[in-house]
Design a protein that fits this description.
Layout lengths: L1 H10 L2 H16 L5 H13 L4 H14 L4 H12 L11 E5 L18 E6 L5 E6 L4 H16 L2 H6 L2 H39 L1
Antiparallel strand pairs: 1-2, 2-3
Helix pairs in contact: 1-2, 1-3, 2-3, 3-5, 4-5, 4-6
Amino acid sequence: EDYKATLKSVLGSTEKANKAFAWLNEFAKKTPFEIDNLTASFVKLAAYGIDGTKVMGTLGDTAAAMGKDINEAVEALADAQTGEFERLKEFGIKAIVVTKANAKKMSATLEQTGQTALAFTDKMGKESFKIIDRNNRKMVTSTLSAIWNEKYAGAMAERSKTMNGMLSNLGDAWTNFKNLVAETLLPIVKDGLQGVLDKIAE
């Protein structure tokens, strides 16, 4: 109920909150992350205007590959959207300002001098660069997603097979069961509780 209330606050309606919670429950089954962390990540992304259903797969794979919590990947992306690139280092990406001296190395044009290049090692072990407009949030998100997808796709599925991943999925199944029970019982319990509160107020 708390998860749904939080989702309703950031998404604006009960219908959207229920839809998001259903999506998160399905997503949790395929990941080594627990529903509380996934919900917190989804809410943070929504606060930054990012649709979690579109990026959480990539962020989850990235976090799983680096042995980190998905929330850390979310914060790295959120920071990058505001022009802060320090946290990206923890996920294999370094931001470099394009200058006349290094432009050729990064295959950048002179017009791109002053812009930001994201430096990373690709799947083949080669140093690569992607030049971005640090003020263009959409470009920052899509570029980071492309880099991480290429490097880390499938990491969540691998980590889900570990003991910790299995225990996490077991916890998600329990949360899902509690939710199914609560949908039937919670209104009855809340009505009774409201009666007690009313008596106390009297």
